[in-house]
Amino acid sequence: MSALDGLEVRRTTTAQQLADGLADRIMAGAFGPGDRLRESAIAAELGVARNTIREAVRILELTGLVRYEVNRGAVVIAPTPENVEALYTARERLETAAAVRTPRPEQLQAINTAFDDLVEAAKTGDPKQIVDRDLAFHQAIVTTLDSSRLDDFYAAMTKELRFYLTVLSKDDTPDEIVAEHRVIVDAIRAGDRDRAVAEISAHIDTSVQRLKQLLADDR
Amino acid sequence: MSALDGLEVRRTTTAQQLADGLADRIMAGAFGPGDRLRESAIAAELGVARNTIREAVRILELTGLVRYEVNRGAVVIAPTPENVEALYTARERLETAAAVRTPRPEQLQAINTAFDDLVEAAKTGDPKQIVDRDLAFHQAIVTTLDSSRLDDFYAAMTKELRFYLTVLSKDDTPDEIVAEHRVIVDAIRAGDRDRAVAEISAHIDTSVQRLKQLLADDR
DNA sequence: TACAGTTGAACTGTACTACAGTTTGGTTCA
DNA sequence: TGAACCAAACTGTAGTACAGTTCAACTGTA
């Protein structure tokens, strides 16, 4: 522990900070799906040049939260049934692939902890926290794949998914959610891979159905 | 089939075209790993404004071929041992996950065709084509996962990998490569998933070793 | 009343200029 | 030989300008 520990020069650009900030705002629902990010308006409001905003939004594009349309600029992504379907299919493939592997002790530990956190969150009933813990639990499962690149890819999808859940203000029933996850954890703990895979598939399947229902109601 | 099929207005921006062009040049080796993309120089040479180049490079960043460093701009990615390792680990996970699934007839057909194409290429001995077909074959395997998002993710990794192979000017021994892939195809055709998984793992393992050897020699 | 056509404001895509701060490679000096 | 310094090159950001596109409101017509 050096005396200079934690001391660090600001090693980031304005555009990067703006991108981070914008991502937060979008996740918080300040911009809805399909909304355009108007460069001039944002630039004026934040007191930066338009090209800086433009660059920030390009960086934002890396996270998948917005996509560019020619002559319309950046548009916030929208949870269409196809998007949701594709997202969950990819999740299912990765998580089941992870479930057939034998987790190392610390990985199993991480899964257990993530589950406990989820149970904890369910008790409080705070929807935002439940969603966070829910997603973190699944990320922990994917970690069993031992691939940093897949971890990153999954994390990006998680970001997108969390946004969808935010805008659809998912009505969760805490007990049910905990129960669904508990069977997964039990199967993993028991080392019963086939059952783990089956439970994960089932869980993701019901999740996607629930989400698509929300989508339909929303319309 | 409409009478207007294929008719389309040019729906792209200058920056997008520049990004595509730059990607081609990088893949072709015009810029080596670690090289900086100097905005002013490129802008002057191509007769466009610097901010347009800047935007093009940001778009290019989406493909993973370059990354930004503060105050140094865009830098072409380099095949470090860690990068290569991570890339191949992710490939291994995805391809083996695909191999445990039962391909639909048209997917099996696509794999067969991809393999035949590879054999064909091996006969010509053209290294560039062999690499192309090799990667296309593996992409065909991943398609069995039935996930467009994973297909896209894998394609992005393929792009990166092809670049690494390009700069390391892989010395391939055609017959060996065909043999390695043939055992995979045989296992898939036979429906022997365990063997398919094992062969894929072995193949990827030898590939990564070979590549890391090239890397070491290169130094 | 419904609908095609027109118009204008708002906005994007691109260019150009400018400048402070950082990086880099070379050169001088101890 | 190595540290200190310096100037050139380059990035990050600001600001202005303008052509082309989009979009919604307005107008005229059947």
TrEMBL record, chains A, B:
Top-level taxon: Bacteria
Presence of keyword DNA-binding: yes
CDD domains: WHTH_GntR
Record bears the keyword Signal: no
SUPFAM superfamilies reported in the protein's UniProt record: GntR ligand-binding domain-like, Winged helix' DNA-binding domain
Record keywords: DNA-binding, Transcription, Transcription regulation
Molecular-function annotations in GO: DNA binding; DNA-binding transcription factor activity
InterPro entries found in the cross-reference section: GntR_C, TF_FadR/GntR_C, Tscrpt_reg_HTH_GntR, WH-like_DNA-bd_sf, WH_DNA-bd_sf
Ranges for domain HTH gntR-type: 12-79
UniProt protein name: GntR family transcriptional regulator
Species in which this protein is naturally found: Lentzea alba
